[in-house]
Structures are given as structure tokens and as C-alpha cells.
Write a structure and sequence with these properties.
single chain, 208 residues, mainly alpha, Arc Repressor Mutant, subunit A, Four Helix Bundle (Hemerythrin (Met), subunit A), 3-stranded antiparallel β-sheet, 3 strands, 5% strand, elongated
Length: 208
């Protein structure tokens, strides 16, 4: 098993809530469990640490990261400011092709949610938000949001209610639909309102 395989396995364990924030990941035990070497496990852990999913403490070991509530709220405050502006700009600049793509992404999100595939859902969710940022025409907003999205995905993997929420009750899916409708109508005020509600609701749906 390669380090990529180990990385994928541990990340999936975190997404499935099999590994909780603060849990220790023992290199020897993981290597035996996956029939691989400690070198492959160590490489996977370093990659997960770079992404913020794992904390490596010298002389103590590796632990699933434990973001604080204050850190998470600060990140979403930044996200609310950035995405309010990207969606406002996108309302007047988005193309028909981009609108069609957003509608397709909402459909794919629905399927990922129905399949209970959180990692696929997060990847599609990222594409949805980054496409709006791209449609804004501002490369700096897009760059900032990409970095912020990577961080927020860590929080969602740890604390989101995805696995507990039936698809038909998903607030995110409904809000994405409303955002696309506002953009289709070129209604900047409605798009901003919908995006701000969506960001605030995403934060409030997290359980700490």
C-alpha cells in the first residue's frame, strides 16, 4: 500500500467520523493494520498535517487535529465577507455557460448527498463556490477563497452534520439552488442575501 492509499484511508476515516478530533494515530498500528511500512504511514501523516487534518507533536506522536470554535468562526467571518462580494460581482458578469455548470453541480451535489459520499460532496461544493468566484472576474478573490475553502473543508469533515442529515433536509442544497436562481435573474441583492444566509447557516450547522 502506497502513502497515497494510506492518506486516502485516513482521510476517509476522518470523514466517516471513525477518527475524531484529538484521536491519536499510532504509526506502528496503522502500518500493521494496512499491511504497509511506517515510512508510507509517516508520509501520509505529513500530507494530512499540511492540510490541517492532523497535528504532529514532536516526541508525542500524530493526532487528528482539533480546531477551536474561535478559529472556525473567524474563518467563516472571512468567508462571509469574500463570498458576499464575489456573488455580487458575479450577478452581472456570469455567463450562461457558467450558470449551466452551477445547475449541473447542484444536481451532482444532490446525488453525492444521497450516496452519503461526503468527500465527493465537498469536492463538488468547492467547485460550486469557486466557479462563482471565477465568474466575479476578480483573481484575488478567487485565490483567497480557494485557500479559505481548503481550511473550511477541514472543519466540515470534523463537525458537519452531513452524515446525520437526510438529503431532502439538506439546507446547503436548498441554499445553492436559491443562489443559482438569483444569479440567473441577475439580482445582485438577492444573490448576496442568499450567500450570506448560506454561509451563516453552514457555520451554525456545525457541532463543536
Amino acid at each position: 500500500m502506497t502513502s497515497e492509499d494510506v492518506y486516502t484511508y485516513i482521510r476517509a476515516q476522518i470523514a466517516a467520523k471513525e477518527l475524531f478530533p484529538g484521536a491519536r494515530i499510532v504509526e506502528d498500528g496503522m502500518a500493521v493494520q494496512l499491511s504497509t511500512s511506517r515510512t508510507q504511514v509517516r508520509a501520509a501523516l505529513r500530507r494530512l498535517a499540511f492540510e490541517g487534518l492532523v497535528t504532529i507533536v514532536p516526541h508525542r506522536g500524530s493526532f487528528v487535529a482539533r480546531p477551536t470554535e474561535a478559529e472556525i468562526r473567524a474563518a467563516y467571518e472571512c468567508r462571509l465577507l469574500i463570498e458576499s462580494e464575489t456573488v455580487r460581482l458575479a450577478a452581472s458578469r456570469i455567463t450562461k455557460g457558467q450558470l449551466d455548470r452551477l445547475q449541473e453541480l447542484v444536481r451532482r451535489e444532490e446525488q453525492a448527498h444521497a450516496d452519503r459520499d461526503m468527500q465527493r460532496f465537498l469536492a463538488i461544493n468547492d467547485e460550486f463556490h469557486l466557479l462563482i468566484a471565477s465568474a466575479s472576474g476578480n483573481l484575488f478573490y478567487e485565490r483567497f477563497l480557494r485557500e479559505l475553502s481548503d481550511r473550511c473543508n477541514v472543519y466540515l469533515l470534523f463537525y458537519d452534520r452531513f452524515m446525520l442529515t437526510p438529503p431532502e433536509q439538506s439546507q446547503a442544497l436548498r441554499e445553492h439552488t436559491v443562489i443559482v436562481q438569483a444569479l440567473t435573474q441577475r439580482d445582485a441583492d438577492a444573490a448576496v442575501t442568499a450567500m450570506r444566509r448560506h454561509t451563516a447557516e453552514t457555520l451554525e450547522q456545525l457541532y463543536f
